[in-house]
Amino acid sequence: MAVVARLFEQSRFSGILLFLMINLGGSALLRTALLIRQLADLDVSFYSIALVFLLGIVNDLAFFSYLMIPFALYLLVLPNAAYQSKLNRILVFAGFFVSLYGLFFVEMAEWTFWDEFGVRFNFIAVDYLIYTHEVVRNIIESYPLGGILSGIFIVTAACFLAMRKLLAKSFKASEPFLLRLKITAALLSLPLISYVGVGQSAHQFSANTYLNELAANGPYQFFAAFRNNELDYRHFYKLGDDRQLSGVIRAKLAANAHSSDKELYNIRRTIKHAGEEKHLNVILITVESLSAEFLTRFGNTEHITPFMDAWFDQGLLFTNFYATGTRTVRGLEALTLSIPPTPGQSIVKRPDNGNLFNLGHVFQQRGYDTAFLYGGRGYFDNMNAFFAGNGYRIIDQTDFTDEEVTFANAWGVSDDIILKRTLKEADRDYQNRRPFFFQIMTTSNHRPYTYPEGKIDIPPGTGRTGGVKYTDYALQEFISLAKTRPWFDDTLFVVVADHCAGSARKVDLPVDRYHIPLFIYAPKHVPAKRNNILSSQIDVAPTILGLLNFSYESQFYGRDLMRLPKDEGRALISNYQKLGLVKNNKLVYLSPQQRIDVIEDPLGAHRPVEVGSAVRLIEEEMAYYQSADYIWSHRLNRYQ
């Protein structure tokens, strides 16, 4: 003890050492408490429990090594006189107290998180940051928050007072810069060692999940989940037999297809259509937040979409169509990859998401110019990286000239500008005698709902209705100009929303809040009609390719809606955690903690019913989501 005390007296870095000791001690106490709580589920040897604590220390040190980087650099550059000053003493004491409070607060949060989910922090914890209002309200209603926060403060104060004298002695230290540099270099070597040697699976040593979770460090796993954006499907969701579910999903996708591979969950198959292919141009316009409820034909009485209300009578309108998620990246994922949503973040934002089988790839094989056009800056939501990594040419706000940008807000240029740029790109491809496939993402129907003055009768910035009506105006202008182009007659126009304007309801998955329009327009090639088959965004890619009569090797989960029996209609919908299937007037959805819910009449009374009433439907849903997770995690949906 005397040696340690002397060390504290001799170095300004003693505060880091003190906090490390408290951090390791607090983590060990939490690990012990969780171990005792879960002891009945362990039934393992003393060696395994010892390994839990050994690996736990390694993971705790790894997290601390990253945490102490800014403090080490601060202590390095601060001159001795400044370090010994009264101001620095106040800053160090305050920082130490706040850090202690943060440590104990996080440990209490980990305990409550484990109490609900039986694991350390993961993507669910990251997800909680997104739904702040709901989470805070739930915490206030579920726990005596005032008492907990007061208790943490008392423990923090007691710990601070016990360490204050040791910390105060460090202010007597007077260390030359070279010595500080050596100490800092030694400290900064720890995060480098951690980065190389302590991966995100370093705590996974046992077949017993509880042991693995006990060996982990919660905050370390939280940041890993934030970076990787995934939620471990096989740990949190109810699983079925892989072989059986593989057969189910193959059967669902077998129509008009020939399976080319019998590997587990490999859905590669050859789609063959009789007759010649139609190498039409395709312009796929994804409209920001275009809920079906904004359109007059779906019950709106404000008449804020006069052009679309008339235009949609001139082509193929799908009236029973649903978004797969609640974010733009979910819509782009489904439209581009035709894959069910996997829990956690969209594949668009995940690492290693290049060379995936996608809609653009099918066009690229036929010599099409394939481009993604976005009115904003495409680094947002990783859009540019995703589309570029999957073979698309990128055009975003940074590619516009000053003359083109006549209006822009925080989200990007107004819809008329991105659509006019689309005309320019199409004209160039036509002159070069090259067919084109363009995917466009609009931005105007988004807060703050600002757009050029004088275009519509609603002042900019006054609300959602103005954003919707302005998008309607921009589409009208675009189609009017497109009709004057020589490529118009041989172009397929597709309009779909990325998601609805809002998804909040009292129920977990409010199906009506996923209802969006899908419209396909090509007067010379697609007759005007309505189609009310139940469907969702993953069906867009194969439906477009079917209308073009393309034969191709497919890895899509979606199906050609023009060749699908009405009773085979279904829709996949989700949020970050809950994964749903809508079919036969029922909603079945999977949740973490291996929960399954069945809802009857999901668009009406929304009545929960017994799981046993939908066994076949549950099996079908599990086949979609379990296979999608398997295919993504095993990297099966890649093209060579």
Write the layout of secondary structure elements.
Blueprint (H helix, E strand, L loop, with lengths): L1 H9 L3 H24 L8 H22 L1 H9 L2 H4 L2 H32 L5 H8 L1 H11 L2 H25 L7 H21 L11 H7 L2 H11 L4 H4 L5 H11 L4 E3 L9 E3 L9 E7 L18 H6 L4 E3 L2 E2 L5 H10 L21 H6 L4 E6 L8 H7 L3 E3 L12 E2 L2 E2 L1 H17 L4 E6 L22 H19 L8 E7 L20 E4 L7 E3 L3 E2 L3 H8 L4 E3 L16 E4 L4 E5 L2 E6 L3 E6 L6 E3 L5 H19 L7
Parallel strand pairs: 3-10, 3-11, 4-13, 5-14, 6-7, 6-10
Antiparallel strand pairs: 1-2, 2-15, 4-12, 8-9, 11-12, 16-17, 17-18, 18-19, 19-20
Summarize the structure in words.
By secondary structure, the chain is of the alpha/beta class. α2 runs parallel beside α6, α4 packs antiparallel against α10 and α14 (242-252) crosses α22 (615-633). It folds into two domains: 2-228, no CATH class; 279-561, Alkaline Phosphatase, subunit A (3-Layer(aba) Sandwich), CATH 3.40.720. The model is unreliable at 1-7 (pLDDT under 50). The protein has 22 helices and 20 strands. The strands form five sheets. The protein has an eight-stranded mixed sheet, with helices on both faces. The chain has a five-stranded antiparallel sheet with strand order 16-17-18-19-20, covered by helices on one side.
Can you tell me the CATH superfamily of the largest domain?
A: Alkaline Phosphatase, subunit A
Biggest sheet, spatial arrangement of strands:
7-6-10-3-11-12-4-13
Q: Number of DSSP helices?
A: 22
> Tell me about the biggest sheet?
8 strands, mixed
| Cα Rg | 29 Å
Average pLDDT score: 89
Structural class: alpha/beta
**Number of extended strands:** 20
Query: Outline, from the CA principal axes?
Result: globular
Terminus-to-terminus distance:
63 Å
Strand content: 5-15%
The CATH topology of the largest domain is given as Alkaline Phosphatase, subunit A
CATH architecture label name of the largest domain: 3-Layer(aba) Sandwich
**Percent helix:** 40-55%
